[in-house]
């Protein structure tokens, strides 16, 4: 199905379970539910590249509290060159944490909104982590999320980041 998919946005756990069950099982055996503790940047990057090689042009891997990883193909259909050959980890913003219900789904929504509204790859991944981060400021999945212009204003105001395991922050 991946050659027929424009954007694929799995969590790290989900995609390792699907495409590298042996590695997934090893990580679960050693780290339990926090398999991210046994993952390095190379594994994330290689997993995303494998998905690109299988035919999906845009891959975003959700890394929980450590943010997201974006990898794109050499050409992303319908997008300008800012989308080509992107490899980028993006750490989360520092929210006033209330709960994490739906944060990954909200991150996906933020990415898709930016993608559909003509953002660059960099802008889309930042909007994604910002939307996911904001969603954690309420106990439910979406009541804390304002209009996208307000999300951008908060990002542009110098909102602090949480240094993620893979971040450059």
What is the CATH C level class, in words?
Alpha Beta
* Basic shape: globular
Number of helices: 6
What percentage of the residues does DSSP assign to strands (E)? 5-15%
Percent helix, as a range, is 40-55%
Global structural class: alpha+beta
Topology of helices and strands:
Layout lengths: L6 E2 L3 H8 L1 H11 L9 H13 L4 E5 L5 E5 L14 E4 L12 H14 L4 H15 L12 H9 L13
Keywords summarizing the entry:
four-stranded mixed β-sheet; 169 residues; 6 helices; UDP-N-acetylmuramoyl-L-alanine:D-glutamate ligase; alpha+beta; 9% strand
Describe this structure as you would to a colleague.
Helix content is 41%, strand content 9%. The chain is an alpha+beta fold and 169 residues long. The protein has one domain (2-156): Ribokinase (UDP-N-acetylmuramoyl-L-alanine:D-glutamate ligase, 3-Layer(aba) Sandwich), CATH 3.40.1190.20. Helix 5 crosses helix 6. The chain is globular, with a radius of gyration of 15 Å. The termini are far apart. The model has no long low-confidence stretch (mean pLDDT 94).
């Amino acid at each position: 199905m991946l050659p027929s998919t424009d954007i694929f946005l799995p969590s790290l756990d989900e995609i390792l379970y699907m495409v590298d069950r042996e590695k997934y099982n090893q990580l679960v055996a050693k780290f339990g539910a926090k398999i991210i503790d046994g993952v390095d940047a190379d594994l994330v990057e290689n997993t995303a590249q494998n998905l690109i090689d299988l035919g999906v042009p845009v891959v975003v891997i959700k890394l929980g509290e450590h943010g997201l990883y974006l990898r794109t193909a050499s050409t992303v259909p319908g997008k300008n060159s800012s989308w080509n050959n992107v490899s980028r980890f993006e750490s989360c913003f520092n929210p006033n944490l209330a709960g994490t219900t739906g944060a990954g789904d909200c991150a996906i929504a933020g990415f898709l909104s930016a993608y559909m509204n003509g953002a660059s790859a960099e802008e889309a991944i930042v909007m994604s982590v910002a939307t996911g981060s904001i969603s954690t400021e309420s106990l439910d999945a979406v009541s804390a999320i304002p209009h996208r212009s307000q999300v951008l204003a908060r990002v542009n105001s110098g909102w602090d980041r949480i240094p993620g395991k893979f971040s450059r922050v």
